[in-house]
Amino acid sequence: MEKNIILYGPPGTGKTYHTCLYAVAIIEECSLETLLKENYEEVRERFNEYRQQGLIEFTTFHQSYSYEDFVEGIRPVIQDDDVNMDGVIRYRVEAGVFRQFCDKAETEKFTESLRTETSAFDELEIGSSPVIWKVSLAGSGDNPIRSECLENGHIRIGWDSYGKDVTEETDFEYGGKAILDAFINKMEVGDIVVSCYSESVTDAVGIVTGEYEWHEEFEEYMRVRKVRWLVKNIRQNIYELNNGIKMTLRTVYQLKNINLDELLAIVKRHVVGQNNVVASKKLKNRVFIIDEINRGNISGIFGELITLIEPSKRLGAKESLKVRLPYSRKEFGVPDNIYIIGTMNTADRSLTGLDIALRRRFYFKRMSPEPRLLADMKLGDSGFTVADLLSVMNKRIAALLDLDHCIGHAPFLRLTRGYVSLSELSDIFRHAIFPLLEEYFFEDWNKICVVLNDSHKLNPVVQFVRKIENDNSTLEYGDAPSNKDFEINEKAFLIMDSYAQIINENAHCTGENVVDAEGSDPSVGDRFSSPKSLEALMEKKEIISQQLVYKNIVFVEINKRNYAMYDKESGKKISNQSEYCRNLIQTDPSLSGITFDKKPRTYDFIPEIMKRLLAVSE
């Protein structure tokens, strides 16, 4: 798979959804086709596991996202630095999210590279983002303390007069507050220590393996940390590696100018046991995901990394390249086993600001709407599906705008399979699809009417957008022209025919057409909702074609088209009539065997029950 990939397309096409599949495919080194055959939830679980392991990182670009967030920057911190320096604001260089991710990959490379040198390093444990510390062992040059530390696998520092525990109440009469804080609190197991032999030379490199200890058996330098020495008793000049900076006399501090690659070279140069070489282990692939990549200032965020992410410039490639970062002055490169996946919404106007340099360095994969995923969602009994609805609308949008502004399938995926719920469809259309159309066409209602086929719908009741006449009676000038305007017809969202006629203006549903019209089978032009009581029905003098009483239930056929059910004693309309009929058919022997060719609704149930009961009575 390509090292740098951008999934782009209209909103709702599953770009972020697919980053999960791409990331798992990269880490497991399998094809997307293989993962698509698996259950997505199982793949998602593995994605979350890899993320917890640090193999996947996720961030989202936005207008305020900066180089300092992504690569590195100077941050203010309040710290107690030393005696009489409490609460001073200091500034330090902090790595951004991408550099931290790369550093973790370099740590793994460092560890595995050492293990390939000799089996003595098989059990080596290095932190995921180790800090490199400079440590002076009783000053410079040869001395008994240095020899003892190298011999027995630890490091020791002094300030013994302060006692074992150093707290806020400690009187740092002789200084050393920041040094002790670093040694006791900040240094962690898995960090790296470089022993300072002189201001330019190191004599040992090791890994911290133990927490802070206090050893009174020593006459001096009682503060101890256990260390596993990788190499010792060497004389390696690191002046140039440290960016031309001499190591000062301060006992403990971070070496920020030396990276793991450079330490690895030192260790390999001096390591013993070359005759016990073990097999090299392939490094795991890692994936960095950038959602909404085009919403950030690409040039500003990536900076010099725009060159380093090229496959040919990655660390380990033939043309590998490093640059010296502006704040930390460290040399930095992008490891070869890091993959970058971005997502890009093509309907976003910020697309025009996308850096051409970025376009050249990424492999682009279009994510298009997939109506086939909605093929089993029926729009009532109109003969059309939500897949047809999405396809037709997108064809019109593509003709009026372009393919980049189509509507994705994702908003519709939560619809009920089979006959879709009208209430669910109306909610999605009113609060997700319609606002998107308003944004796309800048409230050009004529074009919105074209997309929704409103101009061809014969009945204004099912038009989402209708033309209206403006009332100019309040204008100062009586001869002001009467301009036509538009209004949104909220009732249209609650009628199934409104959606079916987006596809074809002659489409019509004879099933549940209006939300909450339980006992009726209305046409669009003559909608009917049965009264709440049998008494109210009689008072309205509706023409009752037929009524039947069975087990204290009054079944009523109204106008040969609308049906309702009432309780004989209370006279109130039965609630949830479809469910009541379904239970009645399943439990009453007289009604057993009633079946339907399609998903039945209230106006399918009641006439069939009445027909069966009349046949039984005869």
Write the SSE topology.
Blueprint: E1 4-9, H1 15-28, H2 32-36, H3 40-52, E2 56-60, H4 67-70, E3 72-79, E4 88-95, H5 97-117, E5 132-135, H6 144-152, E6 154-157, H7 177-186, E7 192-196, E8 201-208, E9 213-214, E10 223-237, E11 252-254, H8 260-270, E12 286-291, H9 298-302, H10 305-308, E13 323-324, E14 331-332, E15 338-345, H11 356-361, E16 363-366, E17 377-378, H12 386-400, E18 418-419, H13 422-440, H14 445-452, E19 465-469, E20 484-488, H15 496-503, H16 534-539, E21 544-550, E22 553-558, E23 562-567, H17 577-587, H18 602-617
Parallel strand pairs: 1-15, 1-16, 2-12, 5-7, 12-15, 17-18
Antiparallel strand pairs: 3-4, 5-11, 6-10, 7-8, 8-10, 9-10, 13-14, 19-20, 21-22, 22-23
Helix pairs in contact: 1-3, 5-8, 12-14, 12-15, 17-18
Q: What is the gyration radius calculated from CA atoms?
A: 37 Å
- Chain-averaged pLDDT: 82
- Main beta sheet, described? 7 strands, mixed
Fraction of residues in β-strands: 15-25%
Number of strands: 23
Q: In total, how many domains does the architecture comprise?
A: 4
CATH superfamily of the largest domain: ph1033 like domains
Share of helical residues: 25-40%
Distance between the amino and carboxyl termini: 74 Å
Structure description:
Helix content is 30%, strand content 20%. By secondary structure, the chain is α/β, with parallel strands linked by helices. The strands form 7 sheets. Strands 5, 6, 7, 8, 9, 10 and 11 form a 7-stranded mixed β-sheet that branches. It has a 5-stranded parallel β-sheet with strand order 2-12-15-1-16, with helices on both faces. It has a 3-stranded antiparallel β-sheet with strand order 21-22-23, covered by helices on one side. A hairpin with a 6-residue loop joins strand 13 and strand 14. Helix 5 (97-117) packs parallel to helix 8, helix 12 (386-400) crosses helix 15 (496-503) and helix 17 (577-587) packs parallel to helix 18. The protein is elongated. The protein starts with a strand and ends with a helix. The relative contact order is 0.10. Residues 81-85, 273-279 and 516-527 have low confidence and may be disordered.
